[in-house]
Design brief:
Strand order of the largest sheet: 2-1-4-5-6-7-3
Distance between the termini: 78 Å
Order of helices and strands: HEEHEEEEEH
Number of strands: 7
Helix content: 25-40%
Structural class: alpha+beta
Radius of gyration: 23 Å
Oligomer: single chain
């Protein structure tokens, strides 16, 4: 009876590790919602962009969702941005220096807002024609 050559334990571990890495990397990617329309309004509420172009929407969504939650920010929120997905539209107020918050439809007296800093806001504003 002939014995088949079995791969060594280290080769099996290396192979398993490679499979795990491939699996983890394939799960990476954009985690931002897919936009179907985007509108931006300047400080005079003029529409500066209204687009449904898929490539432009992907770029804008990626730039906008590269953000972090910040606290204790006092900013002059001059711009409006409407992000439309299959689930609906969100309207965000944004400042010239990259801070944004989600406008809620409900009226509230609370001054608490979740404010985000857009990491690459200059690029986002350039794409949004807010410069």
């Amino acid at each position: 009876m002939a014995f088949k050559n079995k791969p060594s334990l280290s080769k099996r571990i290396n192979f398993s590790a490679c499979l795990c890495i491939i699996f983890l990397l394939s799960a990476c990617g954009n985690d931002h919602p897919k936009l179907i329309q985007f509108k931006a309004f300047d400080d005079k509420f003029n529409t500066v962009i209204d687009t449904k172009d898929p490539e432009k929407l992907e770029t804008i969504s990626a730039l906008f969702h590269d953000r972090k939650l910040v606290e204790g920010v006092a900013a002059d929120f001059k711009y409006l941005m409407d992000f439309t997905t299959a689930e609906g539209t969100e309207r965000w107020r944004c400042s010239p220096n990259g801070y944004c918050f989600l406008r809620k439809k409900e009226l509230t007296t609370a001054l608490q807002k979740e404010i985000y800093k857009i990491e690459r806001y200059r690029e986002l504003y350039r794409e949004s024609k807010l410069n």
